[in-house]
Amino acid sequence: MDSVANLKGSVVQPVKLIIPMSIDCDVAVIGAGPYGLSAGAHLKASGLRVRVFGEPMDFWADKMPAGMLLRSPRAASSISDPKGAFSLEAYEAAAGLQPAAPVPLKTFVDYGLWFRRQLESDLDRRTVERVDRDRLGFRLTLQDGEVLRTSRVVVAAGIGSFQRKPAEFANLPGAQVSHCYEGRKFREFSGRRVVVIGAGQSALESAALLRETGAEVEVIAKIEELRWIGGHAWLHHLGPISTMLYSKHDVGPAGISRLVATPQVVHHIPLKLRDKIRKRAVRPAGSPWLPARLAKVKITLGRSVRTASSQRGEVLLMLDDASERRIDHVLLGTGYDVDISRYGFLSPDLVMSVRQLEGYPTLTGGFCSSVPGLHFVGATAARSFGPLLYFVAGTEFASRELAAHVHRNTAARR
Fold first, then answer.
1. Which of 102, 125, 191, 308 is the most buried (most CB within 10 A)?
2. Contact 370, 355 (CB under 8 A)
3. Given 3.50.50.60, 3.90.1570.10, 3.40.50.360, 3.30.457.10, which CATH number is that of 25-161+338-413?
4. For residue range 352-388, what is the model confidence (pLDDT) as tens digits?
5. How many beta carbons lie within 10 A of that of residue 341, not counting itself?
6. Which residues contact 187 (CB under 8 A, 6 or more apart)?
């Protein structure tokens, strides 16, 4: 019945019970890689109710090439925690490992898992399928259909969704082309002909790993000459002068390295100059320990692939000098393009509400986006705060800045 007549003949409308929605946590962190784990640790230490969603270190463990070594120096490979107690060195000591440089991927993955256990983070391994706004903040729909509500969301979902795949390779079947961030097992290419596209760390190290597993490998890159990180090694051995030129993170050349280490300063540099600094600091280059491992790899520079087609089980590549290659597989070491619309869990309405610069969210202090309560850390923040945010070393600045901002604003509301 829509209404009930009372004894006097008047109509009494039914009472609609309104059950107020409750907040399940103050902050939901989406992503459990270095940035997500670090953010969760700092936010929890500031007294906030935090939940970190995702499988810990999933991208590093399953999508990066097995046998990889970290590009970052040891001093820049620790995940930040509030007291600095859970560094890479602390893990190695606890695990009885001899410190290694460069740091093996497996060691770093195991370190991340140890970091998570030591901090007893409120980790939820379920996947967040969708994030929507509601009147209390945000509504998260999880993979099993459960719906949770939170005041704030921190997106720390990494770069797995941003693989750059040049259009000329779009028509190749999946069995004949892959990206180096897809987690393909290189041993399956033993005895096969593989062309690696690119001249950055991921391309060159992948080429070395493929050759070491028995593949016949050629690297094809547009640049005329390969670049090596730390090419002016003597600049690192000038005592106090070197300290003025380079930060411990070692991101970028002399001088720029020092600037990059201060994201709060980079943030206030005009965008055009900030972009120049960012691109110069992370231009394609390989680590200095790679050349010896590439001695038996064919390197073709100053060339690009015009077309790629599948023909009778082979891949036919036509280069811009009219030469061709007949091979079995193309591996793309072509990096990634940040584009938050490719995060499938962000609702289209939410993505449209975020002010962006070519796929990067425009962020202010506290890593705040234009949507109140929505924050981005890691690579997605590099356009606003500089290239340090592409690297693990950026977790210290990002997590401290984020936690301070969220704690301050949460306390004000209470």
1. 308
2. yes
3. 3.50.50.60
4. 999 999 999 999 999 999 999 999 999 999 999 999 9
5. 13
6. 213
